[in-house]
Amino acid sequence: MENYYPRLLEINSRIWLRRFGKSFTLSSIPDEQIIQWKEKGIDMIWLMGIWDNNKAVINDYCFEPELIAAYNNALKDWKSEDVIGSPYSIDKYEINDLIGTKEDVLIFKRKLNDAGIKLIFDFVCNHFSAKSSLIWANKEIFLPADEYIFKNDPYTFYPSPANSKEYLAHGRDPLFPPWKDTVQINFYSREARNFLINVLINLTELCDGVRCDMAMLPLNNIFFNTWIGVLKKYGFEKPEKEFWEEAILAVKNKKQDFIFIAETYWDLEWQLQKLGFDFTYDKKLTDRLIAGDIRGIKDHLNAEKSYQDKSVRFLENHDEDRAIVKLGRERSMAAAVITSTIPGIAFYFDGQCEGKKIKLPVQLGREPEEKQDEKINEFYRNLFKITKVNIFRNGSWKLLEAARVSDNDFSYENLLAWEWRLENELRIVVVNYSNSTSRCRLKFDLRSTGDEVVLSDILNNTVYKRSLKEISEKGLFVELKSYNSHIFSLNEAG
């Protein structure tokens, strides 16, 4: 199979549209915006927050003390009307009126597709809003409880808004308190599975793929361990197949190229890839970049090719703190070189490339004003220009080993390096992911002829000339200052 390494941009759609004006919908987005994305080499736009969220839960669940503290940190002058609810407390899969209509979406999708860009929407597989209209229409798809269960755990369970004598479970991750603005889907229910599969099939008309929120939670064993008491009490039996195995097959049978991206954790990436996901979050790499775990990063990049090819590499998203805050300016740029030049999806979040520092709670419908970091902005402009070419999209990638320069110099351990090849083109990426100047020698195959090798550092606009004999026998000598990088371009045809 041909290598395919796309670029994905996540946009907080309810916030982003406001930048154009209150009357703007998706269909009225200027063509210039799409052209800009295309020029950057963006292949996928993920519109986060596209669905109709239930407004009835806002007063009940969106003014908790921890959320108010987050609002205060992000938007000093926020007002109650700025709190528009979580986009992950979905009422039903209909377009949020802040975004526009189904027709607006289809027009926007057509414009994107004409430019060669795919449209990605959220699929919130685990839950709906705690007051979703589906509780009245399709109560059989949700996880039930009774008064005894509720009284023993009133934080996890709640009276049904459709019938106060019936009880339901809030959606949850077993490692954290429940999301009280949500209701839990019952993945041991045939009716629930069929309902969600039909939702997904219908989504194939509106978008080119889905980012599946907390995709590991529906897994049979995870779901059982999370809800064991309820499942046993009601006699729900473990399904023969995993939900994702059924769902992805059903959707791919209708639209083979529909893309499934899994937000997943707990080392379950490989399992979800085997169930049919095209790509899975690579949070482990993010954590290792934050920790500065160079050895761990190298080990991570030694994983087999099929895993690497399906990994989503990111520094930030709507759930994460901003990269420049977590890492600092220089280190965040070094980390961006890494995530942008390894196999898989290179994933960016709106504001990342401008050096934004504020993490905006998803419940807010207004953002603070922030000045662009010009150095960060220029860096990403250059990085996008470099990485949008075919060699980084469809080329062959190989991790390189940095060797020591001398017996007593161990700084080579700080350097990460790899190559990309496509026909006669060669790129060598070297990153010093440490706070001290480091040196190494890099060995790689050279098909060049003559005595001299010309290495164009396209990241730093510098040209180096080196002896072919020296590189072949000893390896390329590299010295890099703290958190600096090289991206060398070589044409082996001449």
What would you say this structure looks like, in words?
The strands form 6 sheets. The chain has an 8-stranded parallel beta barrel with strand order 1-2-5-11-12-13-14-15. The chain is built from 20 helices and 24 strands. Strand 8 (157-160) and strand 9 form a beta hairpin. The relative contact order is 0.10. It has 2 domains: 7-129 and 186-389, Glycosidases (TIM Barrel), CATH 3.20.20; 396-491, Golgi alpha-mannosidase II (Immunoglobulin-like, Sandwich). It is elongated, with a radius of gyration of 25 Å. The two termini are 29 Å apart. By secondary structure, the protein is α/β, with parallel strands linked by helices. Helix 8 runs parallel beside helix 11 (243-254) and helix 13 (283-291) runs antiparallel to helix 14.
Q: Total number of β-strand segments?
A: 24
User: In percent, how helical is the residue content?
Assistant: 25-40%
What is the terminal separation in angstroms? 29 Å
Radius of gyration: 25 Å
In round numbers, the mean pLDDT is: 95
CATH class group of the largest domain: Alpha Beta
